[in-house]
Amino acid sequence: MTSLPPDLQRLRTLETWLAYTLDEVRAAIAAAEQREREEQRGKRDRPRPPDWLLELGLNRDSPPVQVHQGDCWNQGKRTRGISLDEARRAISEGVKPCSACRPDSALGFLES
After folding, report:
1. Which residues of the chain have pLDDT under 50?
2. 39 DSSP β-pair partners
3. 91 with 66: CB under 8 angstroms?
4. Which residues in 73-87 are b (16+ Cβ under 10 Å) and which e?
């Protein structure tokens, strides 16, 4: 048995409140669905991380510090993506390869 009021005036008031609440719930659902679509689109369209990173010095006049593989956990905050050729060139010109991700081994440089 329901506990609804018996008189018409209170039933109409309840109906109005339920309709208003249902509209709010539907609007919240629509907003949540939109956020989820945008999040999925963001994940799908996210650019691929670079395969190689060059860790830069403290200022623009400082030489590069290290070369890293793109997914290296030890990369510094001042990095920029570089191409395969740039990574090879940097190591051959004396930029230190990261000792954690070993880009020199991945690039085919012989161990000394």
Report:
1. 112
2. none
3. no
4. eebeeebeebeeeeb
C-alpha of 106 from chain center: 25
Q: Are 103 and 87 in contact (CB under 8 A)?
A: yes
Task: Give the DSSP per-residue string, 52-107.
Answer: EEEE--SSTTSPP-EEEETT-TT--SSEEEE-HHHHHHHHHTTPEEPTTT-HHHHT
Q: How far apart are CA 80 and CA 29, in angstroms?
A: 40
Residue-wise pLDDT for 89-110, tens only, equals 999 999 999 999 999 888 887 6
Distance separating alpha carbons of residues 103 and 100, to the nearest angstrom: 9
- Token couple for 75: 């990369």
Residue ranges of domains in the chain: 7-46, 52-106
User: Do the Cβ atoms of 17 and 24 come closer than 8 Å?
Assistant: no
Cβ contacts of 46 within 8 Å, gap of 6 or more: none
State both tokens at 100: 């954690």
